[in-house]
Amino acid sequence: MKNVVSLKSLAKELNISVSTVSKSLNDSEEISEQTKERVKNLAKLRGYSPNPIAVRLQKQKTMQIGVILPNIENPFFASVLKGIDELVSSSKYNIITFFSNESLEKEKECLDFFSKGNVDGILICIAEETNKKKTFDHIIDIKQKGIPLALFDRIPMQPLGFDAVQVNDYESIVSAYKYLESNKCQNIAFVSSIPTLIVGRSREEGYLSQTNNPTVIAFEDLEELKITLENTIKQGEIDGFIAADINATLLCNAVLQKQGFTPGKEVSLIGYVNAVQNDLSYPKISYIDQHPQEIGKQTAKILLLRLESKLEDIPVSDIVLNTTITIGDTSR
Amino acid sequence: MKNVVSLKSLAKELNISVSTVSKSLNDSEEISEQTKERVKNLAKLRGYSPNPIAVRLQKQKTMQIGVILPNIENPFFASVLKGIDELVSSSKYNIITFFSNESLEKEKECLDFFSKGNVDGILICIAEETNKKKTFDHIIDIKQKGIPLALFDRIPMQPLGFDAVQVNDYESIVSAYKYLESNKCQNIAFVSSIPTLIVGRSREEGYLSQTNNPTVIAFEDLEELKITLENTIKQGEIDGFIAADINATLLCNAVLQKQGFTPGKEVSLIGYVNAVQNDLSYPKISYIDQHPQEIGKQTAKILLLRLESKLEDIPVSDIVLNTTITIGDTSR
DNA sequence: CTGAAAGCGCTTACAG
DNA sequence: CTGAAAGCGCTTACAG
User: Å from B17 (CA) to D4 (C1')?
Assistant: First the structure.
């Protein structure tokens, strides 16, 4: 199945010992230049490459990083993964990706698999269910096993003692609110399909901090959300919408248009979108850019750092990245 | 770093040999029920789990499948990956995912890494550059190394002798054309941002087969595509658009709307979209559903099958899946 | 400068 | 039914 050329076969062909071959290939000081040359030449000629599994067993390192994503079909996570990949693929590690599909049970299974000696480090965004039930024991357990782990995006309120990378959700919404306000919006509503998610709550709090007369339209069920949205919009009192997630954003934009409103004229909308596709669409929705690739890169960076450093005592980092607002057609 | 409990430690504690412990845990017939019990109990008590790296070295199998995707930010590939994951995660393999970012060079590197004993099988959709340059030697090489490989989505014209899963692109467009035609479209144009991609060509041919008076608007550069599209639409002669890919679809829809057309009224549009997001948008674009998850599942299924079967002689399969047309608001 | 030996943690013929 | 030995393909003290 694999290469038949091994250290042993090279050694036999050169009539020297396996140890000498190994050391030569690893450029050991102990070996004469001449021997190294001979060995390296033959190795190249025979197309030798070390059996990675054997190396891992010997070195007691898997050279793999486990990644757990809630849902790959969410473009936010796809972009985060791209960011992770960019950093990791330029290191000597590679990535095993699992999807929890927002399920706590599945998340546990993944973590369990990882912790059984399958990876050297873990990158995880917790599942919605985990977030809701606030069950974090399976994550905390990982610390006991001495496997470095870094969290991103959905970071539990109570600190778990892991490296974490998130975005300033609260402030992002405050900025969005202020932007709308400074552009003649008098009555701004908040729309969300993620009312229980950590990030959703922070965003809602950001909104609530800005108004004494809040209108919050929040349902996990998209059908319910849609109906409530339709009724609210029909009333015609709201002239500004801040949407907390991509689904709420698309839905809000759709209902507005369907009712004959032109987002950007009588009414404004700022939300969260998939930047690539939004760019090609009309109207371009004004949106909060979380720079998901950057989130991925930063998280991977921390983990790689921790994997390199022997010292356990580098302090736990809690990185908060800034978002930016990109103004499109749906606000002015 | 990992579990300190090993076969050796269990053996010592039980005062029996490592081989007996190993066999007990693997439910060998050779061992007495009583000993098995003792061993299993202690193993559970101590939380033993076999070192996967050691098992792999012994078994000469990595238990990993390498996946190469052109671009994870394309929702089509994200869904394919989800399909792959669904099948593979229920097997005893797991997935290492690499992204070629549409680059031939990067694709070669990934394949090279995989072929050096890092995976047991490979799933790949070739990069755009690979497709363009028609350079397939690096893929054919994999066959020599005896590593099963399956292609999906972008399948080279000349058969390479690998399992392949694709979609009936030609016929899909023919159906779309016929649908528009039967709904009073007189002058149907074809819009594409993937003129050189295999799938793009098949789709174009499908279109060309249906008309003597074709209007093909095809540019890889989205800006160019947009400008040409604007001019064509301004002329007002086209009353039906078939778009060959997600970018062309979104762009076409956007330009139509921006020029005051209502897709679904004076003019129709059928294209390719991200189903999840399209569902929440307005207008819902009528689209050809490729069932990307199914593509992923089928491809993974074939590979797993080939990995299980010892016999090299199961015939190469070339699976062509059917698409379906989902009618939304932009056609009737 | 080179090589024999032990070991990483397992499995599996083979003996007893 | 149990265990000693060899081996998967490497690396690395340790001797010479």
Answer: 9
Q: What is the DSSP annotation of A292-307?
A: HHHHHHHHHHHHHHHH
The whole-number pLDDT of residue B3 equals 53
Give me the domain span that covers residue B54: 7-58
Crossing angle for the helix pair B18-25 and B33-46, nearest 10 degrees? Answer: 90
Token code pair at residue B161:
């002798």
State the best of B61, B73, B100 to mutate against chain A, taking most chain A CBs within 10 Å. B73
Same domain, B159 and B299: yes
CATH of the domain at A21: 1.10.260.40
CA dist., res. B286 & res. A306, Å (int): 49
How do residues B59-105 score in pLDDT, each as one tens digit?
999 999 999 999 999 999 999 999 999 999 999 999 999 999 999 99
pLDDT(A309) > 90: no
Tokens of A22: 């190994």
pLDDT tens, A10-35? 999 999 999 999 999 999 888 989 99
Residue A272 is predicted with a pLDDT of: 97
DSSP-derived pairing of the beta strands A94-99 and A64-69: parallel
A148 → chain B, closest CA residue = B1
Same domain, B192 and B285: yes
Cis omega (within 30 of 0) on the bond before A283? yes
* B143 & B218 share domain: no
Q: Which of A89, A99, A277 sits opposite B277 (nearest CB)?
A: A277
Query: Which residues on chain B are in Cβ contact (under 8 Å) with A2?
Result: 60, 117, 145-146
In this predicted structure, the answer to whether residue B120 has a pLDDT above a threshold of 80 is yes
For residue B249 the two structure tokens come to 């679809």
**Dist. CA A288–CA A174, nearest whole Å:** 11
